[in-house]
Amino acid sequence: MDMASHPLPSGTRAYGPAQRARWTALAAEAAEANAFYAPDMLCAALDHLAGTPGVRIIEAQAGGELIGLLPVTVAARHGRLPLSCVTNWMHEHCFFGAPLIRRGAEMAAWRGLLAQLDNAHWAAGFLYLRGLDAAGANAAALEALCVEQRRGRREVHRYDRAMLRSDLDADAYWETHVRAKKRKEIRRLQKRLAELGAVEQRLLVDRAELPHWCADFLALEASGWKGREGSALACSPRDAAFFRAACAAAFDSGLLHFLRIDLDGRPIAMLANFRHGDGAFSFKIAFDEEMGRFSPGVLIELANLHAVQGDPAIGWMDSCAAPDHPMIDSLWAERRTIVQYRVALHGRGVGRIGRAAAFAIANGIEAIATHMKGQG
Fold it and tell me: What is the C-alpha separation between 87 and 126, in angstroms, rounded?
């Protein structure tokens, strides 16, 4: 099923209630959690961020049942190469790219998704998959299917990012994984901050407060370096609208995990997380840079540690952080390996030849660059 291939007109949606209900049912049975492709965030992104080039939703079905969903778009370039390819849609606020695949139907879902791309006249080059968990159900099923179908698959890149997954309670985790010197420094900062006024940590529970929390977050994020560089959510009306819509939908589904630290009623740090399945994804953090001497970013992450480890519904949290992040890497001990794959697309006639050539060219140039780098 194709979605809009042009900017969506104001006030319209690229899906209907029945479609969203199908996606919600699939998300509830997903083999691998991905809040960014679950309906709360995906529909908000389709409403506000799906411009040009167009986004298409590829669905796989078995016996009339939806078993797979993958948002894709066609990229005009592949890295530095002037090669068009199909890629899973990861807008700038999407930090995980695993498709929604029904648990137990992983191979069948991938078979259906790839078959549709093989047969799609608009599917250029190859499939470039980003943001997958190297140890996840999606990567394992994809590898097995590519072997079965003798379909080319090449790992393009991988990196590790911080993840929180532990049976320890928050205090034991903090004592076990954070250096004693750092723990002592944080206690000192907490004491100094408390000397300035009333410090309050809160988790959003009242729907009526949500608009105010969203406004506070957008203002707080824009007050710092992201605002000065133009990358804060509030710098773009579309991005801000996406954030508000995603938070509202997730709250109504019971899947928003929104924290803040206030000093005398004024926010100095906020953190928005989105849950899916038995896990959660840490989405955005904002803090008052003028309070930097108190490390508000670390303090909100400490509050988050207690909130997550104290919630039996959250088994793990993906930091969604860049690799080697200096702050979160020092607080969370576990790691998640994120990979990118280049997957060959089949087809018929000239189209098949062209796709095979694009896949071979991309692999060949990458091999030459790697060799030259090793010789340097």
Answer: 8
Per CATH, 17-160+337-375 and 166-314 having the same topology is answered yes
CA 35 – CA 16 distance, rounded (Å): 20
Chunked into runs of 10 residues, the chain (376 residues) has average pLDDT values of 33 73 97 98 95 84 96 93 95 97 98 97 96 97 98 97 98 96 96 97 98 98 96 97 98 98 98 98 97 97 97 97 96 98 93 93 87 65
- One-letter amino acid for residue 43 of the chain: C
Task: Answer whether 25's CB lies under 8 Å from 64's CB.
Answer: no
- State residue 370's pLDDT score: 72
pLDDT at 5: 29
Is the CATH number of domain 166-314 3.90.950.10?
Answer: no
Neighbours of 159 (CB within 10 A): 14
Q: Report whether 210 contacts 272 (CB < 8 A).
A: no
Backbone angles phi, psi at 258, to 5 degrees: -120, 120
Farthest CA pair distance, the chain: 74
The sign of the dihedral angle between the CA atoms of 364, 368, 369, 371 is positive
User: What's the CATH number of domain 17-160+337-375, 3.40.630, 3.40.50, 3.30.2420, 3.30.70?
Assistant: 3.40.630
DSSP states along 204-219? ---GGGHHHHHHHHHH
Domain ranges, ordered by start, for the chain: 17-160+337-375, 166-314
Which segments within the chain are labelled E, that is strand?
56-62, 65-75, 85-88, 100-101, 127-133, 153-164, 199-203, 256-263, 266-276, 279-287, 316-318, 334-343
- End-to-end CA separation in angstroms for the chain: 47
What does the pLDDT read at residue 253? 97
Query: Could you give the CA distance from residue 265 to residue 268 in angstroms, rounded to a whole number?
Result: 9
pLDDT of 197 reads 97
Amino acid at 82: P
